[in-house]
Amino acid sequence: MTEIITRASALDTPTPPNWGLTKFLDPIRIPPVIEPHSWWGPSEITVRMVRTQARLHSQLPPTTVWAYEGHYPGPTIEVRSGRPLRVSWTNEIDGTMPLVAVRGPVGDRPTSRPGQDLDRPGYEIVEGVTELPSWTVVHLHGARTNAGNDGWAHNATLAGGSQLTEYPNKQQAMPLWYHDHAMDITRLNVHTGLTGMYLLRDAEEDALALPGGAHEVPLILADRNLDTDPSGQLTGQLLFKVPYVPGGPDIPFTGPFNLVNGVIWPHMEVDARWYRFRLLNASNSRFYQLRLVDSAGTPRDEAVRLIGTDGGLLPAPSPLPAAGLTVAPAERFDLLVDFSQFRGERLRLTNVDPGNAGPGRVEPDLMEFRVRDRERRDSFQLPDTLSRSYVRIQHGTTLPEDHEHVWVALLLNADGHPEMWDLEQLPDGDQGQPGENGIIQVEDPATTPPTLRTFRRIGAMFDDAVGVFLRHDGWAVWNVVHVANGGPAHPIHIHLTEFQALFRRTFATTFDQAAGRTTAPIRGFTDVPLEKYEEGWKDTIIVNPGQWVSVAGQFGGGTGEFMYHCHILDHEDEGMMRPFIVSPPELAPFEMHHGGGHHAPGGARE
Fold first, then answer.
1. Domain spans, the chain
2. Is 334 within 8 Å of 278 (Cβ atoms)?
3. By C-alpha distance, which of 452, 458, 457, 456 is closest to 522?
4. How is domain 404-605 classified at the CATH fold level?
5. In CATH terms, are 3-375 and 404-605 the same topology?
6. Entry pTM
7. Which pLDDT tens digit goes with each residue over 458-516?
8. What does CATH list as the number for 3-375?
9. Which SS3 state, helix, strand or coil, does residue 289 take?
């Protein structure tokens, strides 16, 4: 599916330094569970954001964090499908941001190491970060709710304020998560600890009798960096170290310490039976490529079955991809692991991402499973069918004919900085002005002969004019074309919908970075087989350079102005986020806007 999982694994590369911390010393931390319940109407809860201290490793001093209800990560909120929940997200955080940010050039010293490196040429403190107040707004990622409840980035509150939200929960069973979404500083607020899981349950899931209780465990992955004192000892203070290419853009944060549920390299005692793990990548930018290995380093992925994605259950269990499971920031996966064949053994969840190689490589192991050497009764049987309600979305059959089309370009601008444009399609024959900046041409292979489509940029920054207008309860196909010649993969998240991938195609780009446009139509596409799980319901999808990814989703359950963005949080804060509007179809005759969407000038409809 992605460049990440087609390269060779790095299981046999030398072990990197652990900076004085013992691997697998501490038990995993399981977040507490909040189960709101009301027989007479919407349940109501208050979730407080507070300043607290957390022990990331028993060999470290305590770390000051911001956390929901004082837990790092926050409590797991469990609700039933169709039962609304009202949440007062209350900001009770004292003081200013509890992290130090530094910036320095990529050079001869690996950037994935602790300490500020202010003794190195070019390294400097990022001024103003430690003075930032607690300015927060919560987004329930994956929720279908009205825009006023969605966590609009500008609608953050200071300490003493509350954000009042209502979540209808009219969705199938799925793993959502909640996190901060404040404008310009999401990467910093999330880094301080403002994340937590939110699980939706329904009758279809109940009927499967999946492992539950102590045998259903959230695994929230994240990477962090820590400061050091003058002697080089770790202090426990969060450090946000950002490298940059001299003369070029900043590189998104990655850190040398991987945490699972807020603990660096934890262990977990498990019975020799089936477990269900609700996996979330809550990192700022790190991709993981996960495998289960035994004490000899031999992959044991045959014990793992993938049963769900961001938007709920798959139609049937699936093995992991041959090279491991790639998990981008914000993606969630529902995994079953059968430990019955490993009595008395130890296994590791490890990251074999080939990007985690070379001088800046960090410890690949994430956690250790210690399987008890005793037999436990386990009545669970892996079902052949999971979701009987699942329908595969395809053009010409299950995708409604009146769907809309949205076109988005991912690119590098003249300064080498990632950008995201929403596009309006020009009328047939109109190819823009010669040399015009912001023009993307694509020769669509879906028609015979291929149709030349010419697009003009509507907006590139969050506060540019809105370019995408969709109809409530209507379907839309989003075409995301990564035209950059190189650069990073982007996990693209669209609010208010679950979608399915229709196709993934590669191409040789004709985008001229200096001119800010394609110099000839992009053509010669090659289909890339989708991973089986990409046919499931998702809300975040990886788009690699030189790829066109098309997804289809329905936009119901709420109206108003929403966001879509790259979920590399550094990119989101630096401009890769755009708005879109969902409104009732009856409103169309009265609208005066211009921009994308089939009902607006230059839009496309199939």
1. 3-375, 404-605
2. yes
3. 452
4. Immunoglobulin-like (2.60.40)
5. yes
6. 0.94
7. 999 999 999 999 999 999 999 999 999 988 999 999 999 999 999 999 999 999 999 99
8. 2.60.40.420
9. strand
